[in-house]
Specification:
Number of strands: 15
CATH topology of the largest domain: Glutamine Phosphoribosylpyrophosphate, subunit 1, domain 1
Largest sheet: 7 strands, antiparallel
Strand content: 25-35%
Distance between the termini: 27 Å
Strand order of the largest sheet: 7-2-8-1-13-12-14
Helix content: 10-25%
Number of domains: 2
CATH architecture of the largest domain: 4-Layer Sandwich
Radius of gyration: 18 Å
Structural class: alpha+beta
CATH class of the largest domain: Alpha Beta
Order of helices and strands: EHEEHEEHEEHEEHHHEEEEEE
């Protein structure tokens, strides 16, 4: 049992409140996933943003020394043990270098996405990252109850395996080991044994082959064995899919100003004018998308 949440803003007047709105959603899903939590914020930039997690007492000053003259015009934003590096340097040049630094983990990159995740009670994680201060256009989050892999930052959601892409998942996949081997042959890299990372890799692999997000998720109904509710984020928006058995709960609340999704309605009870929202459960095997 895990908790997933997402909010897509139709009205820009709420952009500065995005973090505050997501904070309430994450806190209200803490009981569904006490082991770890994470979230992805989308806030478009003209430059690339690389979110890294510092390991083993590695500090920002140490990172700056290694990156000096390696990444052009880098700016740094430090939040807890994560650092967002903003630069004009393109991913094909920057990512291999970042991955070569053993004291950091790259958790996401793109011109919009920033990802933050840690082990611990979700309410504590949200507080450590000062989520309520973030702004942006849309966001997704996850509270994890560990089942098939270790309670580590690498085992936490969201998972990002492509530019401005990420995935959160409530459920379990039974064929992830076989699928992992196939995706590795296609050049997809994995850092954990978590089945959700495999699903994220499956989506990234399909998108890089120019398949639309909707078709990718539809194809996943036959390629991903198990039971699940997915929220997958892109630079433009997000999409939601429940498998055809639909044993994992989800509810959507949509108004003229936003679309929100969560495992339980209580996660959305604090949202503006939610009592006037169109509230419904996503149908099994149907892709719902906004912006993306």
């Amino acid at each position: 049992m895990c908790g997933i949440v997402g909010i897509y803003l139709k009205n820009k007047k709420y952009n500065k409140q995005l973090g505050k709105l997501l904070t309430g959603m994450m806190n209200n899903m803490a009981s569904r996933g006490p082991d770890s939590a994470g979230f992805a914020i989308y806030n478009k930039s003209s430059k690339f943003k690389y979110t890294v997690c510092l390991q083993n007492n590695f500090e920002l000053k140490d990172l700056k020394k290694l990156l000096k003259n390696k990444i052009a015009n880098a700016k740094y934003k430090v939040i807890s043990d994560h650092v967002v590096i903003e630069s004009s340097s393109k991913p094909e040049k920057t990512i291999p270098f970042l991955k070569s630094i053993k004291q950091i983990d790259l958790v996401g990159y793109g011109k919009s996405i920033e990802i933050f995740k840690q082990v611990g009670n979700p309410k504590d994680v949200v507080k450590k990252f000062s989520l309520n201060k973030f702004s942006g256009s849309h966001a997704i989050g996850h509270t994890r109850m560990a089942t098939e892999s270790a309670i580590t930052t690498d085992g936490s959601h969201p998972y990002s395996t492509g530019e401005d892409e990420c995935l959160v998942h409530n459920g379990s996949l039974s064929n992830h080991n076989n699928l992992r081997r196939t995706l590795v042959k296609d050049g997809i890299e994995f850092k954990s044994q978590n089945d959700t990372e495999v699903a994220a890799g499956y989506i990234s692999n399909s998108l890089k082959n120019k398949t639309s997000l909707k078709d990718t998720l539809t194809n996943g109904l036959k390629d991903l064995d198990g039971f699940y509710t997915f929220i997958t984020g892109t630079q433009k928006g997000f999409a939601v899919l429940r498998d055809e058995i639909a044993c994992k709960p989800a509810v959507i609340a949509e108004t003229k100003d936003y679309v929100a999704i969560a495992s339980e309605f209580q996660a959305m009870a604090h949202l503006p004018d939610v009592n006037k929202a169109n509230i419904y459960e996503p149908k099994p095997g149907v892709v719902y998308s906004w912006g993306s």
